[in-house]
Design brief:
With about 80 residues, the protein is of the alpha+beta class. It is about 45% helix and about 15% strand. It has four helices and three strands; from the N terminus they run αβααββα. Strands 1-3-2 form a three-stranded antiparallel β-sheet. A hairpin with a 2-residue loop joins β2 and β3. α2 crosses α3. The longest helix has 11 residues. The two termini are about 15 Å apart.
């Protein structure tokens, strides 16, 4: 059964209906610097449990997983 995720307003405004957001955008919604996000990804392969999809040289972060993180739930 698929569970629906409530997307916080600031994340919804940034994602504009997209399924994934960029590293700079996840940094904004989590109130960290983009370099902090990149460092965490390099060291652990994730950022607070959220695993990105690589597309070329970009990291795309799933909006549903970011919403779970922001709502206080465990990601995967």
């Amino acid at each position: 059964m698929m569970q629906t995720v409530s997307i916080p307003q600031n994340l919804a405004e940034i994602s504009k209906g997209r399924d994934h957001i960029l590293t700079d955008e996840i940094a904004i919604v989590t109130n960290h610097r983009p370099q902090t996000v990149r460092k965490s990804y390099c060291m652990t392969g994730s950022y607070f449990g959220v695993r990105p999809v690589k597309l070329g040289n970009r990291l795309l972060w799933p909006v549903a997983d970011v919403a779970k993180l922001l709502n206080g739930g465990a990601v995967r």
